[in-house]
Amino acid sequence: MGVIGFLAWSVVFGIVYAQSPVYTSNQNQYFLHGIAHAGEGYLAHDWLANTIDPAPMFSLLVEGTYLISRNGALFYFYYAILMGIYLFSLFGISDLVFDLRRSRSRSLLFMVVFLGVHSALAHYLFSRVLGTEKPFLLEGGVAGQRLLGQVFQPSTFGVFLLLSIYLFLKNRSFLSMFSFLVAVTFHSVYLLSATVLTLGYLWVIFRKKRNLKSPALFATMALLLVAPVTAYTFFVFKPTSMELIRQSNEILVNYRIPSHAIVSQWLDWSVAVQVMIVVAALVVVRKHRLFPILGILVLGATILTVVQVVIKSNTLALVFPWRLSVVIVPISTSILLAFSITKILDAWKADPTKVEHGIRIPCMVLLAGLIFVGAVRFQIELARKNEDPAKPLMAFVSTHKAENETFLVPLKMEDFRLATGAPIFVDFKSIPYRDSDVLEWYRRYHQASLFYQNADCTLLPVFQEQGITHVVLPVEFPVNCTGIRELYRDSAYGLYLIEN
User: Does the chain have fewer CB atoms within 10 Å around its N or its C terminus?
Assistant: First the structure.
């Protein structure tokens, strides 16, 4: 696959997958630092923008992109490239096991079926048949975590873990280390995944070389490469005190992200299905070099998950040992797809030329259909974004905002910062990561919740003391507070100035 082919398939994959037009939706804590540093609006004054950045390299990329162009188009291009790496890596791994490139029919059929499994159409059908929480059953990991999603975010750089495996199987050891370095550099949550992956590599190297020198050298080089990221993560986010880190972890695990951090919240029938897929893939590759790598990933995820359940460690829960599944599941699905396609075509005794012609037209028709559905899904999402009842309010704030203004907004109004360029007090989705900042986030969130849930006007002076100048109220909110003046009102929201 040349550069042109790679770019073409990347774009096709992006359309079929139906990247969201809301490219930053629900992930603005990662975009916020970069956009604030790029001078967007008055976001440099936002409290969250001044907390420790959990993904500085991603923020640097966002900042540089905003300095070039502020319409967001480049983010789609970046995501398309990452999707291309995902596709290229999984095709490459499957090809090494089943020699898909031996005929065009095998390659084309695998690519189209692979895209079908990852398509907006498949996601829609899965969500309708299996439930709204299961659209990514065959490609995502457990606990609602996955490499690809519909928004561009640091976790998407985990596709470089797949590329690392492919490069290692191709005997490109140094490049494989550099590849997982990219993943952990953009999101330190992949440090554990890279560590377990390295253990798999070391076992393969030891079995091949039959000495300790080669694996020791590989381990040393890998450790040196990830040392800066490890040091940054450890020293910047080290506990302020044992009590603060305990309280912070408790908030994150049990209040903010229980669906990701508590095993009982995500352990259901869909996990059993994914386990069967993984076990079947291990059986299929049991004689290939991929087996020990995939096996050690599975073993590492299983052991660490069991340990977390037994000792009930919030710290280990926030390391997300089960996140290894975001690598394990897509590899396993790809292996089973390639295995099935190979067996079917091998059993087809027709002339190779007839097979080629018999597959090409149906594949192209199916691919065209997937592209059409993906494009329609994108337009539906775009229309949904444009129909957001908060959009007129945010347009007004974007036009009329001034320096030294901070807004109290409904806690689910997660796009307000990026849509307006104005600082806010707090929202639910965007959180900091240092323990003391997490506690401050929780205090702010609890205070804002009391105001919106109870229509407690007595809290307005308290907010004003903390720098709040404006408050956004839903139309159903009983506006009987004194000391506020209406600046804007539509059918969904009103904007009010808190007066002295």
Answer: C
